[in-house]
Amino acid sequence: MTLTSATSETVTDRWRDATRPQDSAGWILRAEEVSDILAADAVERDRAGAPPHAEVALLKASGLVTLLGPTEHGGGGQDWATAYRVIRIVARGDGSIGQLLGYHYLWAWAARLVATDAQISAVEQLYTEQNLLFGGAVNPRDSDLVITEDGDELVFTGSKSFSTGGVVSDLTVLEGVLDGTETHVFAIVPTDQPGIVFGHDWDSLGQRLTESGSVEIRGVRVPWEAAAGFVDRVFQPLVYNTLNVPAIQLVFTNFYLGIAEGALERAASYTRENTRAWPYGGDDKARATDEWYILEGYGQLQSKLWADAALIDQVGDEISALLHAPREELTARARGDVAVRIAAAKARIIEDGLELATKVFELTGARASANAVGLDIHWRNLRTHSLHDPLPYKRREVGVYTLLNEVPEPTWYT
């Protein structure tokens, strides 16, 4: 049963009468169901490159969209440690959809990161009760959106070259600078409005279904009272505000791991079913699964992924504790300690994941390079998004921490 078949409605309807998961283990199982559905036709959907409306419907029907939402509004009430594992599992089946879900979780948490208590309550009730998906127009490498004041309203204008998930989102996070000042303002607005115009120009090597193309913001109006974190038009800063970057960097890290795990699973299945032993080495085997170099190769790759997962889970538990603690308690040092460990985890999985996504071709054989097999999708996906920000700077952050005991200064990328 696949999303590209005529049975896609049946797929997304499968949980209609199911009991909602009540704990982390239950949500992990639900994510595994979603991942299996996505994996079944991931290659075909990647080749087609259509906007992932059916995939988003699957995420919504499964309940994963409201995993972090308050239970009193029908959400899962789970913590970030669980959310990170769910992102990874979904990415095993389809790296693009793992990215969409991870970005959604971060933007859904944006209110908690910067907003007032009243704004947090309103946003979380809205998206949880209505099962809404977030996108964002917050690419820091572009010029900031310009915000002008018009009485009791703010008017956002400008463009962004990336807007992951925007085309299939219900809500969009905007960020800009108040004209004539250095004051940054975040706001959450409905996506379906004339002032948000998508370029439909996402045409990348990998992560093809993330709809990460450009967007123009043409005079989108937001009430001043909806400016996140502002009281009487003055922002109320907290160190907690700066957790957005390490939180999303670990989102990246987890869907990278999921992509790599998916590559290993697909390659191992192919080797068991299709790869032939090499008959010219002087140590002939009847089956490829008896070949020592194949066994050694899979053993090496699996060992690296297990080590990566151990670090990623550990730091995921650490930042989850900070994200769910009282916002006023976070210190700059605690934020920096976890940020640098996330940098280390990200560096490791990028290196190991790219090695794995290449090495599997040596372990599966020449026929596995056929487009129909689709092993290339994993390398393309990981190679594409791992260029998000330069890896050497992550290693440098870890080096400065190790040698000088200094934590990274908060920026849009650290």
UniProtKB/TrEMBL annotation:
Coiled coil: none
Residue ranges of every copy of the Acyl-CoA dehydrogenase C-terminal domain listed in the record: 251-388
Domain Acyl-CoA dehydrogenase/oxidase N-terminal, first and last residues per copy: 38-119
Keywords: Flavoprotein, Monooxygenase, Oxidoreductase
Pfam family, one: Acyl-CoA_dh_N
Gene Ontology MF terms in the entry: 3-methylbutanoyl-CoA dehydrogenase activity; flavin adenine dinucleotide binding; monooxygenase activity
Superkingdom assignment: Bacteria
Name of the protein in its database record: Alkylation response protein AidB-like acyl-CoA dehydrogenase
Species: Agromyces atrinae
Organism ancestry: Bacteria, Bacillati, Actinomycetota, Actinomycetes, Micrococcales
